[in-house]
Design goal:
This protein is α+β, with helices and mostly antiparallel strands and about 400 residues long. The protein contains 14 helices and 18 strands. Strand 1, helix 1 and strand 2 form a beta-alpha-beta unit. Helix 1 packs parallel to helix 5 (about 105-120) and helix 10 crosses helix 13. It binds flavin-adenine dinucleotide (FAD). The site of flavin-adenine dinucleotide has 38 residues, from helix 1, helix 2 and helix 14. Flavin-adenine dinucleotide binds near residues 13, 32 and 159.
């Protein structure tokens, strides 16, 4: 008798788990509340799907117990996922920095190939089917996998259901917070730079102490800041806000300069071209909207001529512009959520609940969140795989 397996959620972890369970001769039903599976895969990586990363370490993941991921990423890491993907024709392109994408460069090929492969292996996918009664499911199946994802991006299926299911069995939930998310700034001057994208260095300050510095794109918006550098600091910023810390960012718009070099450049230019106003000097270095905002912040006029004292103030503003962070842009806009089902109550080798036999949790519903760079999918694949490995192992021992 083949084992009957119910998977709640047809996203990354649920689909991979369904495939591995079907390969292990289980009869698998996937229940997906959306009209189609894998909506987050479809939008991921700006439509390209940063599917995994060649360099997976426990340091790339956060949670109350980040070492929880060790067995998963060692058991089903980059190499194993690459082989798995190529077994159904999905070939990866891995960049020098370790980030991997489908060779097609299209996330829809990932969603489509995974779903087709699962279906061809006999997995029954029930779309438009929202599971409400997890206990009833457990009565009717030999194993139930909660692969419901997190509460990030509700328009793509993000919801609290997985946490509620876990609570029914006495699991603790680590408070969730948005991650890989844009930040709101209190300064109205920042909002005036809306639409400007620049390359710079962002330092996160928690309670006035330097936390991390990231170099990358910074995009000013009408609520605050976005861009890769901001997403990369957002997990720590969001966690700090959750803990009621004072959170600021300091932006360095010209990281290749130091204060001395920049103020000397400005003052020398002003001496050699005395007709140039401060704004004219600044737009040779930074975007116009940012230059105008700097002038407003320093409370000087656009036509002011620069002397040594002013050149130092201007340089300091460009290299160390501090903004208070008031909030994140929220779960709806977050790529992922931190927090979730407490991993101390889950077996890290099997992902089975330590509170309820035959109940498994995989993917983002757990209190594990990865860095940007394919780490969140990497954990979804690996955790889905380990659930299936345990279920199919039990299944074959039951048959024999
Ligand atoms: C815009 C965006 C871009 C991203 N880009 C990347 C990227 O490039 N690389 C990366 O590594 N990660 C990326 N991520 C994160 C990644 O998508 C998730 O970490 C990953 O999908 C988590 O997989 P999962 O299986 O745990 O959950 P999901 O993929 O979210 O799947 C969970 C599924 O469960 C369904 N569900 C929930 N509750 C129920 C219920 N009661 N009944 C039935 N179905 C239910 C949901 O509808 C959903 O389809 C991105 C996320 C977003 C939002």
């Amino acid at each position: 008798m083949s084992k009957r397996v119910a998977i709640v959620g047809g996203g990354a972890s649920g689909l991979l788990c369904s495939i591995e369970c079907a390969k292990g001769s289980c009869k698998v039903d996937v229940f997906e509340q959306n009209d189609k599976c894998a909506k987050k895969i479809l939008v991921s990586g700006n439509g390209r799907c940063n599917i995994t990363n060649k360099n997976l370490t426990t340091h790339d993941f956060f949670g109350e117990n980040p070492h929880f991921v060790k067995d998963a990423i060692e058991g089903f890491g980059y190499k194993e996922f690459t082989n798995f993907a190529s077994s159904f024709g999905l070939i990866l392109n891995t960049l020098d920095d370790g980030r991997a994408y489908p060779l097609s460069n299209e996330s829809k090929s990932v969603a489509s190939l995974l779903t087709t492969y699962a279906t061809n292996l006999g997995v029954k996918i029930h779309t438009n089917t929202k599971i409400k009664d997890i206990k009833a499911l457990l009565k009717n199946y030999d194993a139930v996998i909660v692969a419901t994802g997190s509460n990030a991006a509700e328009h793509l299926g993000g919801c609290e259901d997985g946490y509620e299911f876990a609570k029914e069995f006495g699991h603790k939930i680590v408070q969730t917070y948005p991650s890989l998310v844009q930040l709101h700034l209190t300064s109205t001057i920042a909002h005036k730079m809306s639409g400007v994208k620049t390359l710079g260095e962002v330092t996160l300050l928690v309670n006035n102490k330097k936390d991390i510095t990231i170099c990358g794109d910074i995009l000013f918006t009408n609520y605050g800041v976005s861009g890769f550098a901001i997403l990369d600091i957002s997990q720590r910023a969001s966690k700090a806000l959750l803990e009621f810390a004072k959170v600021d960012i300091s932006i360095n718009l010209l990281p290749s300069y130091n204060a001395q070099k920049l103020s000397t450049h400005i003052v020398n230019l002003s001496k050699s071209l005395p007709d140039l106003s401060v704004i004219e000097i600044l737009i040779g270095l930074i975007p116009l909207k940012i230059a105008q905002a700097i002038i407003q912040t320093l409370e000087i006029s656009q036509i002011t001529k620069i002397d040594t004292k002013l050149s130092k103030r201007v340089a300091n503003q460009i290299l160390n512009w501090r903004f208070e962070v008031s909030n994140t842009h929220g779960f709806r806009h977050a790529e992922v959520s931190g927090g979730g089902v407490d991993t101390s109550e889950i077996d890290p080798k099997t992902f089975q609940s330590l509170k309820q036999k035959n109940l498994y949790f995989c993917g983002e519903v757990l209190d594990i969140v990865g860095k940007r760079g394919g780490y969140n999918f990497a954990f979804a694949w690996a955790s889905g795989y380990l659930c299936a490995k345990d279920i199919t192992k039990l299944s074959s021992s039951k048959i024999s």
